[in-house]
Amino acid sequence: MKLISWNIDSLNAALTSDSARAILSREVLKTIIEYDPEIIALQETKLPSNGPTKKHLKILEDKFPDYEIVWNSSVEPARKGYAGTMFLYKKHLEPIVTYPKIGAPGTMDYEGRIITLEFEDYYVTQVYTPNAGDGLSRLEERQEWDIKYAEYLAGLDKEKYVIAAGDYNVAHKEIDLAHPDNNRNSPGFTDEERDGFTNLLAKGFTDTFRHIHGDVEGVYSWWAQRARTSKINNSGWRIDYWLVSNRIADKVIKSEMIDSGPRQDHTPILLEIKL
Predict the structure, then answer these.
(1) Which of 72, 142, 194, 205 could covalently link to 112 via disulfide, CB atoms 3.0 to 4.6 Å apart?
(2) H or E segment at 126?
C-alpha cells in the first residue's frame, strides 16, 4: 500500500492561481499523481468553510479521476479559509470517514485539523497540528492539543492498527532540523512541543522515517519560505511524519521525502507498507 501526505499550503492557490509558486505546486501534484498512491492526505488546504467550490471539484476530478474526495474545513467560531485537511482515496476503497473533535482548547476543534478513514483492520488518519504561534502565543493551547491528540490516537490503537500522517509542527530531535542551537524555543522546537511528541510515540507509535533510516542527518520536509536560500542551503526542518502502531512497524517498506524541486515550504512524504 502506498500513501502520500503533503501540507499543500492552499489548495485553492495550487489549483487556480497563475503565480510562480502555484505553478510549482501543480508540478508537485503532478509528481504525486505519478506515484499512483492509494491514499493522499493534504493539510492546510485553506478552503472555504463549506469546502471546495464546484471549480475546485472539477479540477480535482480531472486530475484525480480514480479517487474519492473528503475534506474537513475550518468553520465558525474558528477563522474561515484557515487550516483544513483533505483525503483523496482510490474508489475501490470504502472507508468509514469521520471528522473527530478531541476536546481541544479554543477553536482548534473547529479548524478542520483531523480526518480519519476506518478500514476493516486499520485506521488511516491525518492531522494538521496547530502551530505554537508567533511569540509562542498559542503554546499553552498547543500543549493541551498534544495531550488530547495522543489520547485520541491511543484510543484508535486499542481497536485496530493505526497509520497516522501529517504536519505535526515539531522537529522532535536535534537531528530533525539544520540549526537546533539557533532555533531553541522557536515554535516547533520548544521543549514542551518536543516532549508532547515524545509522549505521543510512548503511547505505542513508531516514527517510520527514523525506523527505516536510523539517525541519518540532513533530511528535512520543510524549508522556510521567508529565507530565500533555505532550500538551496538545506536549512530545513523535519516536521511532517508518517507514524504507525508499533506492532506493524515491521510492515513498513519505505518512509521518505518526495522531491518537490525548487518549491520551498513543505515537501510531500511517502509511506509504503505491506498490510
Answers:
(1) 72
(2) strand 122-128
267 Cβ neighbours under 8 A, 6+ residues apart: 6, 28, 221, 222, 240, 257, 258, 259, 260
What residue segments make up the domains of the chain, in order of their start? 2-273
| pLDDT at residue 226, rounded to an integer | 86
Q: Which three cell numbers stand for residue 100?
A: 473527530
- Report d(CA 196, CA 178) in Å as an integer: 21
Place of cell 488530547: 148
Supply the CATH classification number for the domain 2-273. Answer: 3.60.10.10
**pTM for the model:** 0.97
Give 169-187 pLDDT, tens digit per residue.
999 999 999 999 999 999 9
Q: What b-and-e string marks burial along 223-235, b requiring 16 or more CB atoms within 10 Å of the CB?
A: beeeeeebbeeeb
Which among 45, 42, 47 is positioned nearest to 5, based on CA atoms?
42
Q: 134-147 in b/e burial notation, b at 16+ Cβ within 10 A?
A: eebebbebbbbbbe
Give catalytic residues, as residue numbers.
128, 167
pLDDT of residue 246: 98
